[in-house]
Amino acid sequence: MSVKILTGTHYMLGDHACAEGAIAAGCRFFAGYPITPATEIAEWISIRLPKFGGVYIQMEDELASMAAVIGASCGGLKSMTATSGPGFSLMVENIGLAVMMEVPCVVVNIQRGAPSTGLPTLVGQADVMQAKWGSHGDYEIVAYAPASCQEMFDLTIEAFNTAERYRIPVIILSDEAVGHLREKVVIPEEKAIKLIERKKPDVSPEEYIPYKTNGDLVPPMAIAGEGYFVHMTGLTHDERGYPAISGEAHEKLVRRLIDKIQKNRGDIIKFEEIETDDADILIVSYGITARSSLKAVQILRKEKIKAGLLRLITIWPFPYEKIEEYAKKVSKIVVAEINSGQVRGEVLKAIKNDLPVIGVHKLGGDLITPYEIVEKIKED
Amino acid sequence: MEIRLKEELKHPLSKWIREDRWPHIWCSGCGIGIAMSSFLYALEELKIEPREVAIVSGIGCTGRVAGYVKVDSYHTTHGRPIPFAIGLKIAKPEMKVIVFSGDGDIVSIGGNHLIHAARRNFDIIVICVNNFNYGMTGGQFGPTTPYKAKTTTTPYGNFEYPFNLPYLAASAGATFVARWTVLHTYYLRQSIKKALKRNGFSFIEVISPCPTGFGRPNKIGEAIDEMKYYKEKSIIKNGIDPKDAELSFHGGNIVVGEFVEIERASYIEILKQSIEEIKGGQK
Amino acid sequence: MEKSKENSKPFWRTPLDYREIKKIKGKVFILEDLCKGCGFCIEFCPTGSLERSDKLNSKGYHPPIFNPEKCTGCGFCEKICPEFAIITEKIEMEVK
Fold it and tell me: With contact defined as beta carbons under 8 Å apart, do A106 and A73 qualify?
């Protein structure tokens, strides 16, 4: 009896949908450490993954988890870890390693009330900036923000595909509300799911140069044990992978790592536009708050106020161009998020005129209700 | 630079060396080169092919070994070669995964990972080159620096006691524990060969001179003087309790030998069996 | 009883198989430009066949110089060199 993914319609926990999405995407290695509210992902994976021949290993801490995830990916397995704010803070150093070594992997951050231990069992959305700037240095990252259990499934598969395609660590910035929500999730047939695998070298080991690209900025990846004798290091390196300690080598390498994502923004950035064609007020939101924002749009429309919602599906890379486009059409932008204004700051960066950008913020623990958004909009 | 005199007369280990990065950066008298060559001779004598081997190292002088050996090698972040090697071994269980790193990397920042990998009896070999200081950053003290030793951050003498590394590894659950100095090239080679042939967690501490970071501040002299000290003071005591494996620079001895060799089911063995049973629907 | 050139012992101290056993000598090649003058090979050679030369290599160190007379081909110098700068060969010699 062969094991299959759970094709069908389910009433599923968000965390479980994420875990099942990982399995459907081909993930066969999970290293993690239990943390509320991401523990359910680890628990589901520890039951399901071995049935597919995959390995669940619970490491001694999040530092080891991230290192093991990168090691397994270097050995050829699609790997993932899941954590929350405090664990993510421990993982950031090795996320930098994954960026530098160009190793594909997926890191799920089910955000909770922060900073520090914060509110382990309550919602937060305050790790947005950390997803982009958590590790030291200049680098680009891709972060998805699921707003429903269905998206927990779909975006996890998308995250693996993006990771494999661009050889980067990809972050799923979910939140405790979506992670602990139970909703309808439709899982398709396995053959209907499109998967992307990492580019493999098409030359012999003697001719292979580990970090040489053919103009598309993503080098093909050789895994261990196939005779390619790769050397991967976190030090600044040249095309052969050997340490190259000079400003010139650093400029070349880091510029390519940044361009790898920035030049492909068009393919990576995703958002949903609801009732924005004639909108006069634009609400920008993501995650669970996007659902409150959607209801707020509906309430406002009933009162004949022309509101629209721009729901960010990828928070990083940030869609500055789209915001700039709307800034010319609307009379105000409202950003609703459960933090002190992290995405609002990015929206302000994108606007060239002095359009008012209003923030509807809560710092963690409570959801922002649709009425709070409506009231804030009507206030001005 | 090539390690050969003429085409027919090349160093027997030249196939293992990335000759385009040779010569290496280690100081005159540093023992890391000897630890590395003992390891490569062990691989040669067992006729292991380069593509079966993966080396993972961390940050530090010993960590640079990964960059010189012509196998799949990974130079990771400080303290994290052991969990990296765990992930790599699970993905490629047929490969021999060796963690080759220094005392600061494995025992200080990586201490937690060391004891857990030993506890799991995970199938990796950890070769920890102990030169009693943090060499790469200029010679600061670490958890293996002897009591009262002088380093750049213990200018008045170290007032901390060091670890007994074989004891640490053995009590955490390592099933093969050995300590040799770089002078004992033959025995070191034999221990590495044993570790390569077995499953489970193997820990080999290799004591090395560090004239720049440790020898000079502590008035031991040149590296040759430190090596002569090893010759004079080392005693081979195979099979003793690692608790008694003394390592003293204050008049005592340097006890070397293979201290622990236990047969116990290793992580990969249990994992493989477990997955077979789960897939077969028995669990 | 004839005595060999190398075997000057009396008959009753001569091993019976001394004609079949080969004596091993060694040849040591130094890759001079790799030497960093640590002195390990010189100090730990069991027969004292290596000596510090007065020559300077390109790094400014004095590489060792090899004297083949007493070398037994043990290969320890090759194993103890941290720079991979020594290559040794074993030569079997007929004992006449």
Answer: no
